[in-house]
Design a protein that fits this description.
By secondary structure, the chain is of the alpha+beta class. 55% of the residues lie in helices and 19% in strands. The strands form 4 sheets. It has a 5-stranded antiparallel β-sheet with strand order 2-1-5-4-3, sandwiched between helices. Strands 7-6-10-9-8 form a 5-stranded antiparallel β-sheet. Strands 12-14-15-17-16 form a 5-stranded mixed β-sheet. Strand 16 (598-603) and strand 17 form a beta hairpin. It is rod-shaped and about 235 Å long. The chain starts with a helix and ends in a 14-residue tail after the last strand. The protein binds adenosine-5'-diphosphate. Adenosine-5'-diphosphate (ADP) is lined by residues 524, 528-529, 532, 556, 558-559, 561, 569, 574-577, 580-586, 609.
Amino acid sequence: MVKKKFRGLFFNAVLALSLISLVPLIFIGLHLTRVNSRVLQHEIFQKEQVVAGRLSAIVHTYITHVSEFFSVFIDLHTEFGGHAFLNQEDLSYLRAKNPSISYLALLDRKGKMLLSAGNPPTTDYQTLLPEMIKSCIVRKENYWGPVSFSAQRGWLASMAFPVYESLNNKFVAGILVVQVSLQPLGQALLQAYPLEMEAFIVNAKQEVVAYNGAAGGVTDTISDKLNQQIRAIHEELGGNLTGEVKLPDGRKWLVASANLILPGWKVYVGQPANITSKLVLESTVRSYGGVLRIALIMLLFILGVSYWVIIPITRPLERLRKAALRLREGDEIIRREEIDIPKNEIGDLAEVLIETSESLHARREDLLSAQKMLSSTNQDLEQRVEERTRELKALTGQLVKNERLATMGQMASIISHEIRNPLAVISNATRLIKMLLKNPDVKVEKQISIIESEIKQANSIIGEVLGYVRSRDLILSKVEINSYVHDVLASYPLPSGIKLVERLEASNANVKIDTEEMKQAIRNIIANAVEAMQNQGTLTVGTRSGRRMVCIYITDTGPGIAVDIRQKIFSPFFTTKARGTGLGLAVVGKAIMRHQGKMFIKSKEGEGACFQIYLKIYHNPGDTCYGEIG
Ligand code: ADP
């Protein structure tokens, strides 16, 4: 597509230059045509003038011939006729000798008709008599009268010749009136100048006397038309001998005229003006041979110039197009060396394209790094969301648990209060009974001690329940772990069958704990251990500290904890004991959790159990930590 456009550019340039170069050629052609036209018109006028001149000569010859014919005859007759005047025979002889004679008449000096011969005259001679007498009798000259038209004989010219009495005295005895057909003149015109030019002989009254277009003579209708034509020509030409005239029917003619020997008579020679167009066309076509050669040379020149001008434009443009296509298809950058950058506007365009590609490249890089950042941020966010969700779940679980514990705590408080009061009443009553019975029966005494033991047991259970469900805020205080553990052990009444081993580590780490709650937790573990060892065994309690955490471990030599219950022992109310509450380890778990510590159990069945409590070491600000739990 684009390539075609480049080609189009080339062809458009060729076309445009060709058209531009055609303009002067057209002007040259038009100028040539105009020059040709003028030259041709001039030539035609010259030719027409020559023809008109020749026609004039022909008419002159014809008229001279006619008048000489009669003058010679009259002279010969006067000299040698043998009789004084012309008679009927003479007239017949004349007609026979000259077939163009239509009518002959002999008049006396006063114009009286003496003899006549031939066709009836078409002219009323009576009206012409004064003119004829004046010319022939007074001036002794031949008379040329008007021309009249006859349908049978065509145009007829009237003439009169003086007839002398004798050649010596030159006395005019009469007048020979003659009407002569001008048809031979027309035929002569036609023979001399066939139809390529039209020739008219016109008398002083602007009437066509002879016309080469009508071989058989000039008809009435034709003559009317011709007369109109001639009048128009006469008016348009004015005094000029040649000119382009417009005929009544709209045609244009090139006409030349010449005066004839007869006063007022003229000859007109004309032809349609469009003949020049044809001739000009032929001549122009000939001239255009040269023009076409010039056009061909121009075209070759234009092709050369276009190639020279357009190719340096299209070649870098083509390279630019290819580079832009590569850019579109994903190539990241346009390299300068790919495009031979010219030092012109195309070069500027190439620079802009290259810079654009570079800027695009840079932006793409930015975009990619932003994308990477975004995806890593996304991952990070996802992780955080997951963590937060987990925390939220845990918190929700905790909240639910807390809520439940709080509710249970409230219930337990109410129930404990309601149970403890009657238990206190029973206990008081039992004590009163013991006091009243001075020497009680052994059986009664035993029953009373059972009541007291059960009251104690019930109070202990209530205490455990309350200890688990009641929730109060931690009261944290900083303690040294070894001294703290030692004090807890010291306050615990261990049965005599239990041997206590204390392994308190030298590094006495600090912890921040609720001492009462943590003490209860340690005591619960010890109680379980003692119970598991059934009052016979070794209880090892020790501490161990790392960089961040300190561990309190309590090991017994009891039967250990079965694998299948290890997961359950921290659940509230889980117990394997007949009279157990299942709350001891639940209280431990709760306390460790509230201290954000950790709890681990190591146990092998038959080899005892080890409970490990991990608490965060409390570092004074500025303290440095070393080592980890080993
Ligand atoms: P209780 O003591 O009322 O049963 P605890 O929550 O204190 O409730 O203990 C739950 C259970 O864990 C006990 O019933 C016992 O089976 C088991 N247990 C706890 N400590 C030990 C131990 N040191 N050795 C063996 N079993 C133990």
